[in-house]
Amino acid sequence: MIRAIRGTRDILPPETALWNFVEAAVRDVFRVYNFHEIRTPIIEDLDLFRRSVGEETDIVYKEMFAWEDRGRAESEKGGQWLALRPENTAGVVRAYIENRMGERGLLQKLYYIGPQFRRERPQKGRYRQFYQIGAEVIGPLAAGSESPAVDAEVLALLAALLNRVGIRDWKLELNSVGCSEDRPRYNQALRNALADTLGKMCADCQRRAVTNPLRVFDCKVPADQPIIEALPRISDYLDAGCRSHFAALRKILDAQELPYTINDRLVRGLDYYTRTAFEFTHGALGAQNAVLGGGRYDGLSEALGGPRAPGIGFAIGEDRLIMTLGQSAEAIATPPDVYVAPVGEGMDPEAAGLAEELRRHDLVVELGNESFRLKKSLETASKLGARFAVIVGENEVKSQSFALKNLGTGEQVSVARGDLPKTIQANRT
Ligand code: AMP
Question: Kind and range of the H or E element at 261?
Fold first, then answer.
């Protein structure tokens, strides 16, 4: 038997109803914040992720699905290296640059919903194909893209979005990770601090300390945590610009009464983040408790060869968001309003006609096959959770009056064809 690939899974009905509910709700929130959808390709040039996410991140170093594409002309030396996108910010910024989206001088407020791919060790809440709902606000400096007011709006949108889907007990953790000016000073301080203790740390940390010491904070090895806890704090290394940006953001959040806690160990997993970094967590998720993360990436466009275009974005793990909902899919899925049961020979065309008519009245109709066994048809209708069954037999067709059975109460009445839609609608919950 051929099975779904490790770390991937089928999302089946009725669970898909939950996914649709979430996606419809978030689209609605994006709409009132005047965000617009962007769809970028799932495959991109591998270099895009090397240059944006960073060579030294776990995502690029260990988890990328990448391959040399053989599709190029035989005459060309080697193929192009392609990758399945492990996240969507890089693709959106590439699209911003390639399509010159900043040229009108406006802020681009973009959102996406789609699959991402990382070769992680699969476990509950962690998949190799997972889904993200994300947004990016990016634009030229003159459009105000660097303003802390943009950060505040993004955080307000996120709070609205979580509240809208029914997640109330979220926690917002906030930090400033500084910028390209103060990062080297902080990195040096980390290297100095790590110099003595490094031998006691895990192999990953030993590597990170040399290449990108900030990544040490990604370490999950328990024995390393006391050493990490004692490392210098980034808040002591921010320059005046970063400090006042962060203070201005906090002022707006306080005025809006948007609750947050400062976590100065929050550095986020990717290289391109500057200044504001944040995560929303939720207790129900245990070890994998980050529902979403994001932050500012003021230098990313330039790192990808584009114009100066500061930006801020986030990605919500849709799989985890849905786990957090704790809502049963059955409660959301809509069962059919009515099961149309053709009973007796030659009744299929009659039943099909009636089903079409009821559907035009926006009723959810399941159409049975011609059968001589009424009992069997009613059993199927009940299994499907239909509220009503309408029986289409020879007598009914002649009189144009149909037996309508309420499958909840067992009550059966005869209803004129023209009255069927409103009788069924009246009993909709
Ligand atoms: P990141 O792009 O690493 O900042 O991740 C953003 C969000 O995506 C996280 O907070 C998770 O909710 C989700 N996420 C990341 N990796 C996975 C994964 N392998 N499986 C499921 N969700 C994930």
Answer: strand 261-262
pLDDT of 107 over the 80 cut: yes
Class for the domain spanning 334-426: alpha beta
Q: Using the mean position of ligand 1's atoms as its centre, give its distance from the Cα of residue 208 in Å.
A: 21
Name the residue with the closest Cα to ligand 1, atom 21.
Answer: 126
Residue 295 CA to ligand 1 centre (angstroms): 14
For ligand 1, the distance from its centroid to the CA atom of residue 14, given in whole angstroms, is: 24
Backbone phi, psi, residue 261, to 5°? -125, 150
The tokens describing 346, both together, are 């030659």
Strands 311-317 and 290-296 come out as antiparallel
Q: What is the pLDDT of residues 58-101, one digit of tens each?
A: 788 789 999 999 865 555 667 899 999 999 999 999 999 999 99
Nearest CA to ligand 1 atom 17: 126
Nearest CA to ligand 1 atom 15: 317
Superfamily covering domain 15-182+238-324: Bira Bifunctional Protein; Domain 2 (3.30.930.10)
List the structure tokens of 381: 């209708």
d(CA 307, CA 131): 29
Residues 6+ positions from 216 with CB-CB distance below 8 Å: 190, 194, 201, 205, 208, 209, 224, 228, 231
Residue-wise pLDDT tens digits, 403-418: 999 999 999 999 999 9
CA 241 – ligand 1 centroid, Å = 30
Handedness of CA 209, 212, 217, 222 (dihedral sign): negative
Using CB distances shorter than 6 Å, the residues near ligand 1 are 87, 118, 120, 126-127, 130, 132, 269, 290-293, 315, 317, 319-320
Domain residue ranges in the chain: 15-182+238-324, 334-426
Other Cβ atoms closer than 10 A to 291: 23
Contact (Cβ atoms closer than 8 angstroms) between residue 323 and residue 284: yes
Q: State the distance between the two ends of the chain, measured CA to CA, in whole angstroms.
A: 42
pTM over 0.70: yes
CB 322 within 8 A of CB 132: no
Q: Whose CA is nearest to atom 20 of ligand 1?
A: 126
